[in-house]
């Protein structure tokens, strides 16, 4: 036999005095209404928890995006400065080839070049080596291919422009020449 007050708490039973509830049907109806409201409250609480979790995820994602924005905010300026670095390197190379009469000029340009590279490194911009490494399209731009037996195929033989990283991101790909098989090697492979 079921109690007509099943599903109600003691506090609820105290609120519903038998003399106030004229019939057992009214008590059952009140009990069902209480159960319905309890379910609705539970569902609303679950929705609140999911919404709160979604908001926390959004907040964390925005913090990460803001940190990335701050980290890479100077990327365009850094790209522009790389051409200055390239021209200074060319000036040093040409001054070295010109002979002794430009030694003072060469030293001055080398000092400016070193200072500029130090400033770039201070802000997370670093060159990376490419010569002798396997060709990696994520870091290198192949400008040409050279037939050679000196290094394995798809190895960087010559670097035309250095590549640079901005923190952990490739700022500029290195422009390189990549080794390919000589005609003799290719002919030997097709003959086999």
Task: Please describe what this structure looks like.
- With 192 residues, the protein is α+β, with helices and mostly antiparallel strands.
- It folds into three domains: 10-70; 74-123; 124-192, Nucleotide Exchange Factor Grpe, Chain A, domain 2 (Roll).
- It is built from five helices and six strands, in the order ααααββββββα.
- The protein has helices spanning 10-15, 24-71, 75-98, 103-122, 183-191; strands at residues 125-128, 140-147, 156-161, 163-166, 169-172, 174-180.
- A three-stranded antiparallel sheet has the order 1-4-5. A three-stranded mixed sheet has the order 2-6-3, with no helix packed on it.
- The chain is elongated and about 115 Å long.
- The mean pLDDT is 83.
Q: Strands, helices and their partners?
A:
Layout: H1 10-15, H2 24-71, H3 75-98, H4 103-122, E1 125-128, E2 140-147, E3 156-161, E4 163-166, E5 169-172, E6 174-180, H5 183-191
Parallel strand pairs: 2-6
Antiparallel strand pairs: 1-4, 3-6, 4-5
Helix pairs in contact: 3-4
Count of the domains: 3
How would you classify the helix and strand content by structural class?
alpha+beta
Strand content: 15-25%
Q: Which segments are poorly predicted (pLDDT under 50) over 5 or more consecutive residues?
A: none
First-last Cα distance: 93 Å
Measured as a percent range, the helix fraction is 55-70%
Q: At the third CATH level, what is the topology name of the largest domain?
A: Nucleotide Exchange Factor Grpe, Chain A, domain 2
How many strand units? Answer: 6
Mean pLDDT rating: 83
């Amino acid at each position: 036999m079921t109690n007509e007050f099943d599903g109600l708490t003691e506090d609820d039973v105290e609120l519903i005095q038998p003399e106030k509830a004229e019939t057992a049907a009214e008590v059952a109806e009140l009990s069902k209404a209480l159960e319905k409201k309890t379910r609705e409250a539970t569902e609303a609480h679950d929705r609140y928890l999911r919404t709160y979790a979604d908001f926390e995820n959004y907040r964390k994602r925005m913090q990460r995006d803001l940190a990335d924005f701050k980290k890479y905010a100077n990327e365009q300026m850094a790209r522009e400065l790389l051409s200055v670095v390239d021209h200074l390197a060319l000036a040093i190379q040409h001054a070295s080839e010109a002979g002794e009469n430009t030694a003072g000029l060469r030293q001055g340009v080398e000092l400016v070049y070193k200072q500029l590279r130090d400033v770039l490194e201070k802000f997370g911009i670093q060159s990376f080596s490419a010569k002798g490494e396997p060709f990696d399209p994520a870091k290198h731009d192949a400008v040409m291919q050279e037939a050679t037996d000196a290094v394995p195929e798809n190895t960087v033989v010559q670097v035309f422009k250095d590549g640079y990283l901005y923190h952990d991101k490739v700022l500029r790909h290195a422009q390189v020449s990549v080794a390919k098989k000589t005609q003799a090697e290719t002919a030997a492979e097709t003959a086999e």
